[in-house]
Write a structure and sequence with these properties.
homodimer, 60s Ribosomal Protein L30, Chain: A, about 270 residues, four-stranded mixed sheet, six-stranded parallel sheet, 2 domains, elongated, alpha/beta, Alpha/beta knot
Amino acid sequence: MITKNEIRRIRSLHNRKGRDEEQHFIAEGPKIAAELLSSGWPVEKVFALESWIRANPALMRIVNCPVDAINGNELGRISAHPTPNQVLVVAKTFPRHPEIEKPEGINLILDSISDPGNLGTIVRIADWFGVGQIFCSEDTVDIYNPKVIQSSMSSFLRVRVHYCSLLELLSKFRDEIPVYGATIGGQNLYETEKCPDLFLLIGNESRGISPGLKPLIHYNIKIPSYPHAGGQSGAESLNAAIATSVVLAEFRRESDQSSLGDKSSA
Amino acid sequence: MITKNEIRRIRSLHNRKGRDEEQHFIAEGPKIAAELLSSGWPVEKVFALESWIRANPALMRIVNCPVDAINGNELGRISAHPTPNQVLVVAKTFPRHPEIEKPEGINLILDSISDPGNLGTIVRIADWFGVGQIFCSEDTVDIYNPKVIQSSMSSFLRVRVHYCSLLELLSKFRDEIPVYGATIGGQNLYETEKCPDLFLLIGNESRGISPGLKPLIHYNIKIPSYPHAGGQSGAESLNAAIATSVVLAEFRRESDQSSLGDKSSA
C-alpha cells in the first residue's frame, strides 16, 4: 500500500529539481536494489512486489528501513521506467558540492556530458578501472537521474561524482597535477608521457572541451585511428564513453608496466 | 508532397520485416543524409523540408534520385524518431548474407548483440579502428534498424555488416585464423599473443558468448580491472561496446609496435 502523498513525492524524484529539494533519489530493479541494500548506503524506504520480498529473505534481514509491499499497478505509478521491475528503492543523495582536497591517482573530469546513458557508462568504466572520483561541470547531467543510475549498473555506489566549476578546480590544482585532455587534434595517446596523479578531461558529446578550459590542458591526447584496407578513412570521432575507456585502459596498462619496471630494476 | 502509399511503405521500413521485404531502409537527419548522398550508396528517394533543400545546393547537384519537398507534419509521419530532423533518405540495403571469402586483418564477430545503441556504437568503433567487416549472429539486432543507423553516426557506410551462423563461420576458418573471445574469466589482454589476422568475438550484453561458440575460441582474453584506492573491487563487467573498443585499441597498438620493430630491425 502506498499513499497518494508518497506517489507524488517519489514522482518528484524523477526530476533533478525534486531530488535537489528532497535530497533523495530512486533506484530500480532487483540487481541494483540488492547491491544498494547490501552496500550500507543510507536508504529511506523500499517499495516492492510481494513476490520480490518473499524471494529475498537474506536482504530482508539486513534492510534497516521500512519495506512496503505494493502491487504492479502501484509500482507503475512511481517507476521512472517504461517497464517497472519488481522493486524501487528511495535512497539518500550525497552532497553534490563537497570540500575538495588535493586529488590523487587518476581523476576523471567531465565537461558538459549531456546524455544520461553516457554518464552512467562512464561511471561504470571508472569503477572498472578503479577511478574513485569524477568531477563534473555544473551542466553535466545529474548522477541521480534514473537513466544514469540504471546505466551505471550499480557503479554509482563506488564512484563519487562531484559537481563543481571545472575552471576553478583545474586552476587550483593544475600546477601540481597535470591535465590530459582527450581531443581530436591531440598527440598520439601511446606516445604521451603519463604521470601517476592526473586529471583526464573529457568534453561534451558534440562540442568537445569548452574553449575556456582548453588553455588549462597540459597534454592534448588523441586515440589513433586507422584507415580501412582500401585506404579510406573512417569515423570522425569516438563517443565520449568509448574515448574514456580507451584512455583509462592505456593509463592503467602503462602504470602497470612502469611498476613492473620498478620491480625488475630493484 | 507525399502520397498515402509512400507513407505506408516508409513506415513499413521502421521494422525489420518491412526492410527485408522492400530491401530498403531509412536514414535521417542532415549529417547522415549528407554523408549518405555523397558516398555513392544507392539511394531511392529523399524527403526533406524545403529549407533543407535550399540550404544544400551542392548536395542537390550530386543527388541522382528524386528529392521531394515535404512539410514538417509529413516528415513526422514517416520519421522513426521522436524529433524528426529536416531530412529522411530511403536507401537500398546490402544483402545480409553475402558469400564469405577468407577474412583478413581484424574481423569483429558479434554474438547476439541486442541493443541497437550498442550495435551502432560498435560499428562506429570498428570504423575508427579500420575494421571493415563485422559478422553478426542471425539474432543480433538489424544493422538497418533506425536506432542503429543513428548511433553509428554514418559509420555503417564504411563497415560491412554480415549476418550468418557464427558456428559455421568459425568452424570453417578457425584452423587458419585464431579466434579471440572477450570473456570475464580470460587471460590478461596485454599478456596475450596477438596475430595479424584474427577474429574478435564479443558476446551478448548479459549472457556473454554462447556456450556453443566457446569451444571454438583459441584465446580467452580479459581487460584487467583495478580495485579502488581502499581496496574495494569495482564493476563486474564492461559494456559490450566498451570492451570492443579497449580490445581493438590494444590490437592496433600492438600491431603498430611490431611493425615499428620490423622496421627498426630491417
